[in-house]
Write a structure and sequence with these properties.
Radius of gyration: 28 Å
CATH topology of the largest domain: FAD/NAD(P)-binding domain
CATH architecture of the largest domain: 3-Layer(bba) Sandwich
Largest sheet: 8 strands, mixed
Number of domains: 4
Bound molecules: flavin-adenine dinucleotide
Number of strands: 23
Strand content: 15-25%
């Protein structure tokens, strides 16, 4: 069993400060504002990089709270959790500690797009995060509400018009100073809560919004463009009042897969996993939604909500006449509550009860806490650099929902990166960036800072052009080494472990490559596999090529060559995935190298980007048409032009160039032929 000594909140409270007085005038390398998913990762990452860090949050006991669904990961989001873990972040290990139901989503598709997901015990998750922060050297936690950011003139030696130098807390006249400030205030900036026709100020139920001072400083003093978004949460239902026999049982994975590369198993035993169920809405649900629309301010507002996690009201209005899925998910091992995923709603509480009772398992259900919506300010993220620093304000970094994203995983991913960069900036180290070709975090940040958002942004695998290389299984190889060697946010323990894994995998791949035999010899060894052999292509197959076959497992090869392959048993699944994806990834790698090689390739100035017969999005065509880059290298540096688009452009221009060269050669030959003919005729 996964063992960890959880430091209880009581001892946490005894070492953190609830009074800011003695910190006034003190200077930190980094101050992080907000103890949500972005803030906790940012504070821990900044401290790991070596910065003296202060985390200020409204209520210490809400550090690590899961505001909405107690779950982590999923399709696209699971990749982010693995990457945060690879950078030594907290959420993956917290998920392994708190998970009570594990499943890999998207299993029918290839492992590159599998989505590791877990239902969590809220209490355990919070305890783990609080305990980790307590044990993080160089990190101080302070309970308090930040009222204002301290702003001075910019340092003329650096880009930017202003410099943020610290924070001021509510009811405190003296500021606390810092070289870098990371704002991670989530849904709290000018937050208002909606339920029925009632509106009240709040960042989430039970929590006051962030003071208007921060929004005002961002908008008026720093001149940042801001917008407004909304989200919502479903009512929590008393578990005892639900008839589970009317819903379909959804079994968890028989063997839970840990999120963290440091864990070989999770805390919850496979047989102790909780149950999830699936049910569907009925026409009665649509009727109640329609009848209560006039009582529902949140739905009537034009503010954009999360398209891929919509309220039941939006689902019914967008897709009338359909029945919609509702997942019945546990809130914790000892919790009496059930989370009905898919039933986010903001109508008056009595109508919420009417609505849920239209769904068979909830015929007699009781609501413990009604659902509600929240509207909040966000900062248009195109004003940030790829290090998540505000371009116009030295020392100010933003991460999480404040940048227009939604979800714990998106927040955590930005948190690690903003925290690490804030620390590096404070310690006079250059910023570090992640590209779209090396991580989902790179894709997320690139999308935010180059395209911005018009609705709450969430991660999907389809956003990552190089998703076959950016797999959940290899996040450690992609990021841990960089995290240690270039960023400084990874412990040497994790680094050493990843080096061991990398070297062992490399040895195993070499061993597999060295096992070469003719197809008949392989058939003799593995009589059950169906090998399609194109003799004109190859007369010998390596173990690596054989492992690419769907019905061949590493264990099968190991049973045939135990002396050669047994040492690598622990990596059997990783080796299988590597074998399957390697040819494709090598092609992609070659594409990326080609782009680097062809940096100076000229792009014709008369090119009509709108009619190019290649796969480019309208958005990319518009950017290329507007800027008309002169070389491929210039095109790669255009915000919003993805590496995949560059590959298509490169192929098009290259093939066109080849065609023109051939045509030119043909013309030359024809000309030479004609001249020869002419001189022959003249001679005769
Ligand atoms: C009602 C609701 C519904 C949601 N629904 C979904 C959903 O359906 N799907 C989904 O993916 N995500 C949903 N989320 C979003 C998810 O909770 C967030 O995306 C995630 O928590 C964002 O993390 P964060 O760290 O940016 O902010 P948060 O987790 O919101 O944390 C912000 C932190 O900052 C602190 N803080 C704020 N202002 C100050 C200040 N001035 N001084 C000090 N501390 C401050 C707060 O106390 C809080 O601890 C929902 C959130 C809410 C509130």
């Amino acid at each position: 069993m996964l063992t960890k000594k959880i430091v209880p909140l009581q001892s946490f409270l005894s070492v953190v400060s609830r009074r800011a007085g003695h910190l006034a005038g003190r200077h930190y390398d980094v101050i992080v504002v907000g103890g949500g998913h972005a803030g906790t990762e940012a504070a821990a990452a900044a401290a790991r990089v070596g910065a003296e860090t202060l985390l200020v949050t409204q209520k210490i006991h809400t550090i690590g709270v899961l505001s909405c669904n107690p779950s982590l990961g999923g399709v696209g989001k699971g990749q982010l959790v693995k990457e945060v873990d690879a950078l030594d972040g907290l959420c993956g290990r917290a998920g392994d500690w708190a998970g009570i139901y594990f499943s890999i989503l998207n299993r029918r598709k290839g492992p590159a797009v599998w989505g590791p997901r877990a239902q969590l015990d809220r209490q355990r998750y919070r305890e783990f995060i609080q305990s980790e922060l307590l044990c993080t050297p160089r990190l101080t936690v302070l309970e308090g509400a930040v009222e204002e950011l301290m702003v001075t003139d910019a340092n003329p030696q650096e880009p930017g018009r202003h410099r943020v130098t610290g924070i001021r807390l509510a009811n405190d006249s003296d500021p606390i100073l810092a070289s870098s400030v990371v704002l991670t205030t989530g849904t709290f900036l000018s937050g208002s809560l909606f339920m029925g026709r009632t509106t009240s100020p709040g960042g989430r139920i039970g929590d006051a919004p962030s003071s208007a001072g921060i929004s005002n400083t961002l908008r008026d003093r720093l001149g940042l463009r801001m917008g407004r978004l909304k989200t919502g949460t479903p009512p929590r239902i008393l578990k005892d009042s639900v008839d589970f026999s009317l819903a379909k049982f959804q079994p968890p994975d028989s063997i839970p897969s840990p999120f963290s590369f440091l864990n070989t198993h999770v805390r919850c035993k496979p047989e102790e996993q909780q149950s999830c169920y699936l049910t569907y809405t009925t026409p009665g649900v649509e009727r109640v939604v329609r009848e209560t629309l006039h009582l529902n301010c949140h739905v009537q507002q034009d503010t954009k909500g999360p398209r891929y996690c919509p309220s039941i009201e939006s689902r019914v209005l967008r897709f009338p006449g359909r029945s919609h899925q509702v997942w019945l998910e546990p809130e914790g091992v000892n919790s009496d509550l059930l989370y009905p995923q898919g039933l986010t709603m903001t109508m008056p509480p009595e109508m919420q009860l009417r609505l849920i009772r239209e769904i068979p398992p909830f015929h007699r259900a009781e609501i413990h806490t009604p659902g509600y919506g929240v509207h909040y300010d966000y900062v248009c993220p195109t004003q940030l650099s790829p290090a998540l620093q505000v371009k116009s304000a030295q020392g100010l970094f933003l991460a999480g929902q404040i940048n227009g994203t939604t979800g714990y995983e998106e927040a955590a991913a930005q948190g690690v990166w903003a925290g690490a960069n804030a620390a590096r900036s404070a310690l006079s180290m250059p910023p570090v960036t992640l590209s779209r070709t090396e991580s989902y975090i790179g894709v997320l940040i690139d999308d935010l800072v180059t395209r911005g958002v018009t609705e709450p942004y969430r991660m999907f695998t389809s956003r990552a052009e190089f998703r076959t290389s950016l797999r959940p299984d290899n996040a450690d190889l992609r990021l841990t080494l960089k995290g240690f060697e270039e960023v400084g946010c990874v412990s040497s323990f994790r680094y050493q472990e990843t080096v061991r894994v990398r070297d062992s995998l490399q040895e195993a791949l070499t061993a597999l490559q060295s096992l070469t035999m003719s197809p008949p010899a392989w058939r003799k060894k593995l009589p059950d596999i169906r090998m399609i052999v194109r003799y004109f292509v190859c007369l010998f197959f390596s173990g690596m090529e054989v492992l690419q076959y769907q019905d061949v497992s590493f264990e099968m090869l190991e049973s045939v060559f135990p002396e050669c392959l047994s040492p690598y048993k622990e990596f059997s699944q990783r080796l299988k995935i590597e074998a399957v994806y390697r040819p494709h990834c090598e092609l992609q790698k070659r594409d990326i190298e080609r782009i680097q090689r062809e940096e100076n390739m000229s792009l014709p100035q008369d090119i009509d980007y709108f009619s190019l017969p290649v796969s480019l999005s309208v958005e990319v065509r518009q950017i290329l048409d507007r800027v008309r880059p002169s070389t491929l290298g210039a095109a790669t540096r255009l915000p919003g032009v993805t590496p995949a688009a560059i590959v298509h452009l490169l192929n098009y221009v290259w093939h066109k160039g080849q065609k023109e060269k051939r045509a030119h050669k043909r013309q030359l030959h024809q000309k030479e032929d004609r001249e020869e003919e002419l001189s022959a005729r003249n001679a005769s």
